[in-house]
Design brief:
This protein has helices at 5-11, 17-30, 34-41, 46-57, 64-67, 72-75, 80-86, 109-119, 130-141, 166-169, 184-191, 216-235, and strands at residues 88-93, 98-103, 122-127. With 236 residues, it is mostly helical.
Length: 236
């Protein structure tokens, strides 16, 4: 447990180097835990932070229900000024004299050492959300801890007015289109639906009158002339 909360969160990829720097700067000016400032940045929720500590440090997680059932004897083990300074709440004291301490930041070894040295008990770490510990401090010690307001996002900068383009100042320009590029009129015509032209009905072709070559009388006369020529050739 030698690593601090910031280092662990950074190595786990849960916060960036920039977010860590902002949280450290806020803690120096406002106090509190590093995790609390990370939460107020919006990088993590308090439940996500508590679950991270539970898995990373393998410590139990204490809920509000357990914090609401602490005896006066256990509360009396840790004085109010120490509980407020380290943002911790004593939860239980077993037969061997081990003191379970609910902490918003169970990686805070300095707090564990100070509480253990003052109370004379071996301290067993547990994690609880920041809001749950704030509630318990007020319930048992009467300590009202003001929560720093979350930083408001910076106002969006007004977009600068667009300067008039040189093309507009110079007046309308005539664009020369390539030979293969359709003109504006052609594009406009292509976008309009094509007109449907109804063709006039074409009358059926008139029946041909039979010509002279196909008339029955003409065919009979032609046959008679052919027979006469054949007889003339036979007499000769």
């Amino acid at each position: 447990m030698a690593e601090t909360a910031g280092v662990m969160l950074l190595r786990a990829g849960l916060i960036s180097q920039e977010q860590l720097g902002q949280a450290l700067a806020s803690r120096r000016t406002e106090g509190g835990t590093l995790g609390g400032h990370v939460i107020r940045q919006g990088a993590l929720t308090e439940e996500q932070l508590a679950d991270f500590f539970r898995h990373r440090l393998m410590v139990p997680k204490v809920g509000k229900e357990a914090l609401g059932a602490i005896t006066k004897k256990v509360i009396g083990v840790v004085p109010s000024d120490m509980a407020a300074e380290f943002f911790v709440v004593p939860v239980s004291l077993d037969r061997e004299g081990n003191l379970t301490l609910a902490m918003a930041d169970p990686s805070d070894t300095h707090a564990v050492d100070e509480v253990g040295f003052f109370t004379g008990h071996f301290v067993m770490r547990a994690v609880a959300t920041e809001s749950a510990i704030t509630w318990a401090l007020e319930k048992y010690y009467g300590i009202v801890r003001e929560q720093p307001a979350a930083a408001a996002p910076p106002p969006a900068a007004a977009a600068p007015a667009a300067a008039p383009s040189t093309a507009a100042a110079a007046g309308p320009q005539v664009l020369e289109l390539d030979a293969d590029e359709p003109s504006a009129a052609e594009l406009d015509a292509a976008r309009r639906p094509a007109a449907v032209i109804e063709a006039e009905p074409i009358p059926p072709p008139a029946a041909e009158e039979p010509g002279l070559l196909h008339h029955p009388m003409a065919e009979a006369m032609a046959e008679a002339r052919a027979e006469a020529r054949a007889e003339a050739r036979a007499e000769a």
